[in-house]
Amino acid sequence: MKTQVAIVGGGPGGVASAISLANKGIQSVIIEKDQFPRFHIGESMTGECGGLVRKLGLETEMLQRQYPVKHGVRVYGQSSENTFWIPVMKRSDEGELEETTTWQVRRSDFDKMLLDKAKSLGVPIINGKATGVIQANDSTVTGVEVRLENGEVEMIESEMVIDASGQATFLSNIGVAGNKDRGKYDRQLALYAHVTGAQRDEVDNTLIFYEKKNHWGWFIPIDDETVSIGIVAPTDYYKSYGETPEEFFKRKLHSFHPEITRRVANLESIGEVHASSNYSYHIKEFTGKGFICVGDSHRFIDPIFSFGVHFSITEGMMAADAIEAYLADGQGREAENPFAELQSHFELGQDSIEDLVDCFWGNPFAFTFFAHQRYREDIIDLFAGRVYQKNPSPGLAALRTVNAQIAEQNMTVSAD
Ligand SMILES: Cc1cc2nc3c(=O)[nH]c(=O)nc-3n(C[C@H](O)[C@H](O)[C@H](O)COP(=O)(O)OP(=O)(O)OC[C@H]3O[C@@H](n4cnc5c(N)ncnc54)[C@H](O)[C@@H]3O)c2cc1C
After folding, report:
1. C-alpha atoms less than 13 angstroms from C-alpha of 94 in its C-beta half-sphere
2. Nearest CA to 220 among 45, 401, 25?
3. Does residue 415 have a pLDDT over 70?
4. Phi/psi zone of residue 119: left (φ > 0), alpha (ψ -120 to 50 degrees), beta?
5. Which atom of ligand 1 is nearest to 49's Cα?
6. Is the pLDDT at 85 greater than 70, yes or no?
7. Can you give the pTM of this predicted structure?
8. Span from the CA of 167 to the centroid of ligand 1 (angstroms)
9. How much is the average pLDDT of 54-70?
């Protein structure tokens, strides 16, 4: 089989790439190992992500599904009184902040909707697992080897490969992209389930609960009846209890934060308890001759502020733009890495969010002061996902200063 772009993974990153390529008249195929619908975590969207979903032509489908509308995120500190609120806001053409909304979604349904959209644009979906790549003598990636569901192997020749395999990090695992370095939040365990009968607020926003450093939880309504609840803690802390994931999750639901406890007093059902562990990592070389990694396939930061789907969709769309230029005029074909600039651009956005999250954990008091008072607009921009400015806003610069001070203090303590 031959195509212009072979895409590994049919999640949001892969499908955003395929839809954007199709809109440019560029042929692609998606290789997906799972049958959809399938369970996936990652249910709360940023404001800009909602805008991108509209841009991909999916607003009508989204409205038909009646996903809960998100107006913002409320973060509860250790007590119920100690909270901060970040509204979802967009920038007008004049640069003014304006209210807008985004969504919270059931990912099994949302991801299938995305994949169906790609199919409707003529993108073939190959049910199978990518197991290797085809490479030219100079190691340019020129296609993908796929093990189909019937056990046969199919070689798909392509001019470009997009890795959108999520946490499977396909191209890094086979040594084409760089090594996977542990992130700062890699010894964490997240346990989560879909519940019914939870007490919801009048408006269904995303709620985050802070217990203590690196211990947190979420409450995300995903349809009329169902709420996604997650509890995150360091893996060693979880192990110290010697409980099963279900036991730990259910016990914590009623003890970990007063704002969760009161909402789960009369639950009707708790679905399967899922787990994600060791989930933060960073692959620094993730583009090269013939390939680009998007979304989780190259980097994953602590998910507390819900940026995963945003990055996967944004990067998928940006990858399509870069591939269009590359295929049209061979832009950068002679360079060692034709996509070096794109790689730096992806890192610029992800670095900003890692700095935001680091400051939240490192100095929650400074963070809350910045978010509520000193740099409110800049923090609203970051939460919305406006993270690709070359010159950092004063708010982002302040977060970085706090992080640098914490790093310096830690160095002094370890030197002592
Ligand atoms: C605890 C937790 C909470 C989170 N909460 C949020 C949140 O509230 N909001 C948010 O935006 N994000 C959240 N995320 C992040 C979000 O889940 C991911 O960032 C997002 O799903 C990434 O999209 P993707 O397209 O890159 O990868 P995925 O959605 O993982 O899709 C990758 C696809 O590739 C397929 N695949 C993998 N390997 C192969 C292969 N070899 N061959 C063929 N197919 C393959 C997989 O089957 C999968 O369908 C959370 C993550 C965690 C762990």
Report:
1. 3
2. 45
3. no
4. alpha
5. 11
6. yes
7. 0.97
8. 6
9. 95
Distance 349 CA to ligand 1 centre (A): 18
Tokens of 332: 């950068």
Fold of 2-59+106-183+280-338: FAD/NAD(P)-binding domain (3.50.50)
In CATH, what number does 188-277 get?
A: 3.30.9.100
| pLDDT score at 97 | 97
Is the shortest distance between the CB of 312 and ligand 1 below 6 Å? yes
**Ligand 1 pocket check for 381: Cβ under 6 Å:** no
Between CA 290 and CA 323 the distance in angstroms is 10
Q: Identify whether the C-beta of residue 400 lies closer than 8 Å to the C-beta of residue 392.
A: yes
Token digits of residue 115: 């994949």
> Where are the chain's structural domains?
2-59+106-183+280-338, 188-277, 362-415
Q: Calculate mean pLDDT across residues 366-371.
A: 94
Asked whether the beta carbons of 56 and 191 are under 8 A apart, the reply is no
| Separation CA 277–CA 367 (nearest Å) | 26
- What is the CA(23)–ligand 1 centre distance, in A? 24
Q: Are strands 281-283 and 226-234 parallel, antiparallel or unpaired?
A: unpaired
Ligand 1 lined by 50 (C-beta under 6 Å): no
Q: Is the pLDDT of residue 223 over 80?
A: yes
Choice from 33, 107, 125, 286 to test ligand 1 binding pocket (greatest atom count within 8 A of CB): 33
CATH topology identical between 2-59+106-183+280-338 and 188-277: no
Cis bond upstream, residue 12 (ω within 30): no
